[in-house]
Write a sequence for this structure.
């Protein structure tokens, strides 16, 4: 039986590829996509999710979420993803509409309707998750697992200390990390092992419109970012979806992780203590990726998507 997954995201080029991985994988069933402001503003992340839904032929509903962080001014990554979020990708205007429900209510209702069955997977800022926890704390009991793309135990990518998704809403992230569930943190130390090198991209050249209309223009734009030029862009968000599909691709270590919300230079840092006493551990931190198996998983899923794109 396919695993159920609910994806909270801020599309975003790598979010687009994460959605393709989930849609093309028979191992998972997407029960919904919720959007949050992050890589770009909410109007663009929601519009992009709808465009991608139509392009891929997904049936899962899309629900619009939080338009700003809990307490801070908005932070975007338009320099990495482009002003509208999908870089050089141009998809048709969406035909579908978002759900009438707010993303927070959608998350709560979905988890309540299927307790213990849905992998809640967040690959953007954690604002929607924090709001859902505030409104209905029992979601920590109802989620099968909580997997995020965010954080790091050695570095940042938006500043020296912090990864973008956490820095975009540190207070929201702190709520999510401090909740009584065990977070799986797929951070930069792991995702930088999933770089779309020229050899990797050669696997996608036979995928027709999926490659020419989405993968190639997306990765070409993404790859212009200075930190990616030598090795190819890291496909961050797809790693979190891959964990839900096949946790055996990853090695993890148990740790205590707290989110810095006050530091002048370290706000948004995921302070990771592998040596904390086990009773304080709250996170499984991904450390090592089986990259060859990861790219095979991704390529097979993309092929399924490419073979079934709507006309």
């Amino acid at each position: 039986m396919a695993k159920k997954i609910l994806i909270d995201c801020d599309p975003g080029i790598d979010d687009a590829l994460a959605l393709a991985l989930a849609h093309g994988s028979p191992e998972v069933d997407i029960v919904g996509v919720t959007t949050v402001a992050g890589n770009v503003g909410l109007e663009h992340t929601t519009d992009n999710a709808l465009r991608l839904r139509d392009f891929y032929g997904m049936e899962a509903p899309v629900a619009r979420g939080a338009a700003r962080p809990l307490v801070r001014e908005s932070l975007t990554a338009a320099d990495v993803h482009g002003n509208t979020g999908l870089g050089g990708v141009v998809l048709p205007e969406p035909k579908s509409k978002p759900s009438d429900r707010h993303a927070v209510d959608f998350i709560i209702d979905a988890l309540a309707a299927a307790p213990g069955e849905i992998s809640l997977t967040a690959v953007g800022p954690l604002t929607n998750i924090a709001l859902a926890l505030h409104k209905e704390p029992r979601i920590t009991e109802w989620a099968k697992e909580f997997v995020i793309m965010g954080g790091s135990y050695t570095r940042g990518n938006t500043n020296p200390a912090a990864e973008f998704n956490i820095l975009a809403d540190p207070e929201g992230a702190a709520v999510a990390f401090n909740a009584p569930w065990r977070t799986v943190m797929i951070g930069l130390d792991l995702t930088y092992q999933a770089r779309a090198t020229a050899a990797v991209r050669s696997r996608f050249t036979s995928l027709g419109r999926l490659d020419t209309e989405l993968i190639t223009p997306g990765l070409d734009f993404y790859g212009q970012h200075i930190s990616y030029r030598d090795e190819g862009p890291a496909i961050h968000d797809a790693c979190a979806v891959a964990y839900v599909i096949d946790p055996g691709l990853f090695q993890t270590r148990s740790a205590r992780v707290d989110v810095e919300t006050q530091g002048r230079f370290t706000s948004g840092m995921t302070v990771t203590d592998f040596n904390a006493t086990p009773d304080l551990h709250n996170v499984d931190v991904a450390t090592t990726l089986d990259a060859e198996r990861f790219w095979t998983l991704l390529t097979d899923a993309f092929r399924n998507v490419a073979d079934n794109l709507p006309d």
In short: The radius of gyration is 18 Å.
